[in-house]
């Protein structure tokens, strides 16, 4: 399964490569356009367009009936009931194609999250780095160590929390680039990449052991050895915000706005009714 996600991730790397040095909105808009096209074409071919159009007319007709009989409470209630029935029949035609579309869109969102969910550190910026041991391991006896390369300053010694099996450090990025943080605990070591670059690329704030859940939420990401006493490592990367129409938004909101704009702009040229 992870092999399939690795292929998908490599494909997104290729698609978004030309946008890596541009404003994050550029790559996000391109994927939103492709997603909107995909959703419209799938919806058009899997849905009964004629029935959807007919059901929509019935719904609007009953709303007009409410206006027409606005002085007759009994007739208004009857029309409201017919509206609900018509909406139920409308959804019967709309929901099945949407169910088909939602799975690929969720896979797209997982790919976007690892690229637009977080940003790399800026020179002078500080973050926390944390390590957790597997249950049963003692953080005091494991003697966790973090070794940082040139360009990164280790500002604090390890803060070890015995109850949670956790060790925390504070680091500072002194230069731009990609760096390797080397951890060791209980006689085992692990290396994690730290991103301190402005370009848009994959960022994995949490690295753990191989699991289906991590393949879904962090596709193509590095993993820790199953035999390692280290359960997971986390870097507290800043959340990225994307500017759209002069407003800073989380990428999910910006992506939704772009999909809606592209979707409504393309529905008539593609002759899609929904």
Topology:
Layout: H1 2-16, H2 24-46, H3 49-68, H4 73-116, E1 126-133, H5 139-142, E2 145-147, E3 152-154, E4 159-161, E5 166-173, E6 177-185, E7 188-196, E8 206-208, H6 212-217, E9 230-235, E10 241-244, E11 247-250, H7 251-266
Antiparallel strand pairs: 1-5, 1-9, 2-6, 3-5, 4-5, 6-7, 8-9, 10-11
Helix pairs in contact: 2-4, 2-7, 3-4
Can you summarize this structure?
This protein has 274 residues and is of the alpha+beta class.
Structure write-up:
With 274 residues, this protein is α+β, with helices and mostly antiparallel strands. The chain has two domains: 2-117 and 245-266, no CATH class; 126-237, Immunoglobulin-like. The chain contains seven helices and eleven strands. The strands form three sheets. Strands 1, 3, 4, 5, 8 and 9 form a six-stranded antiparallel beta sheet that branches. A hairpin with a 2-residue loop joins strand 10 (241-244) and strand 11 (247-250). Helix 2 (24-46) packs across helix 4, helix 2 crosses helix 7 (251-266) and helix 3 (49-68) crosses helix 4. The two termini are 34 Å apart. The model has no long low-confidence stretch (mean pLDDT 90).
